[in-house]
Sulfotransferase (Periophthalmus magnuspinnatus), 310 residues
Amino acid sequence: MSYFLSFAFLFVVQIHGAPPEFLQEEFGIDPIELDSIQASNMSDVSTSPPPGTSKRAPQSIIIGVRKGGTRALLEMLDIHPEVAAAATEVHFFDWDENYAKGFEWYRDLMPYSYPNQITIEKTPGYFTSALAPERICAMNSSIKLLLILRDPTERVISDYTQVYFNRLENHKPVQAIENLLVRNGVLNMRYKAIQRSLYDVHIRNWLRHFPLEQIHIVDGDALIQDPLPELQKVENFLNLPPRIVSSNFYFNQTKGFYCIRSDGRERCLHESKGRPHPAVNNSVLQQLRAFLREHNRTFFRLVRRTFNWQ
Ligand SMILES: *[C@@H]1O[C@H](CO)[C@@H](O)[C@H](O)[C@H]1NC(C)=O
Ligand SMILES: *[C@@H]1O[C@H](CO)[C@@H](O)[C@H](O)[C@H]1NC(C)=O
Ligand SMILES: *[C@@H]1O[C@H](CO)[C@@H](O)[C@H](O)[C@H]1NC(C)=O
Ligand SMILES: *[C@@H]1O[C@H](CO)[C@@H](O)[C@H](O)[C@H]1NC(C)=O
Ligand SMILES: CC(=O)N[C@H]1CO[C@H](CO)[C@@H](O)[C@@H]1O
């Protein structure tokens, strides 16, 4: 698995030319990653395209959130015969140096698709990017956006855990989560993991450019518990015929997660490297929860929907 992660890491650096230092901190690996390497098979890049296919701009984008389960969502949607999923996180709309390369560069990173297929890419960094909404709107103002969210407090801890292990692997100093969350007794609002969990702040930015009807929110906690109902909602949102069925999933007792079965292939999902989350000091945790509660209230009002986060 660590082989897979470093492979994926290298792959993104090579293809998209991003500064490694930035990546080490910011490149998000989902809580739910794939065991297999299929998602980033480099040899696919050079195989000749099937007749009748071409590369198309995405008609739908999974915009985030980091650590929300974006990889799981994309892989599960990829079961659908009318979905063509991009293999890597493109970071076109959130990284200036990629955006400067232009639209043709972006389209070239999309998979070959048939005319009846919907191309989907996912880059979790878009949701929290200040510029991504207007840039995506400039490309296609009627594009369909998918946003997968989970409990904002859990997301903070998961975000911390990922960066913590990345830093360990890169022999960089690490800090206890409490020291990052709290400075001088108050919540440290400059901590990016907290900022990224302010869903209301970020969604406002998207709603300035897109009507709420164009943004479908997937409940990340529900997707992991029972994938099919959440995926059927997405099929409906994307106007896809219902093709994902319960036999595409089987529960692996050992892992405690669902595995995907499609086209005779089996792929399993699991917690990122099985990393345990740290036990967070309870009073700090309560402080964080109380703070996010206000934000999630505002968020529920903005999206006219509530989520079962406690
Ligand atoms: C990558 O794709 C090629 C062609 O589709 C296949 O032959 C090869 O086994 C794949 N490699 C991995 C590591 O999945
Ligand atoms: C824009 O997105 C919509 C919704 O997915 C799609 O129907 C339309 O074809 C897209 N337009 C272009 C130019 O890609
Ligand atoms: C279930 O998960 C275990 C533990 O990761 C794995 O060894 C096994 O191959 C999986 N079984 C199936 C049928 O996917
Ligand atoms: C949790 O942190 C508070 C200060 O923020 C401290 O007073 C308390 O002793 C800590 N609790 C534990 C169990 O470490
Ligand atoms: C995680 C979190 O803060 N959840 C809260 C979101 O807001 C509702 C009220 O609208 C609270 O009940 C949750 O505890």
